[in-house]
Amino acid sequence: MLGLGFFGWIIIGGLAGWIASKIKGKDADMGIGLNIIVGIIGGLIGGWLLAKFGVDVDNGGLWFSFFTCILGAVILLTIVNFVKGKQRQ
């Protein structure tokens, strides 16, 4: 996934972060910058997690990278929501 390049990370990360925020119902709370950050970090989380399960993430291609970013972004937003919920109690 590192072969996407700088602009590839921004575009794929932004789209993945936006879709993940829609899935988690957080779209109103997030702007484009936060969507990009969540998507990029989500890509790292998703790639790391899938690699731990033995999935070849290096040769997956563009669509695989995109879905990996979405998966990781959803996981990241779930963790953030859990931590924020714990702080309110």
Automatic annotation (TrEMBL):
Source organism (scientific name): Corynebacterium lipophilum
Superkingdom of the source species: Bacteria
Pfam family, one: Transgly_assoc
Location within or outside the cell: Cell membrane
Cellular compartments per GO CC: plasma membrane
Family: Belongs to the UPF0410 family.
Protein name: GlsB/YeaQ/YmgE family stress response membrane protein
Entry membrane topology: Multi-pass membrane protein
UniProt keyword terms in alphabetical order: Cell membrane, Membrane, Transmembrane, Transmembrane helix
PANTHER family reported in the protein's UniProt record: UPF0410 PROTEIN YMGE
TM spans (from-to): 6-23, 30-50, 62-83
Main location group: membrane
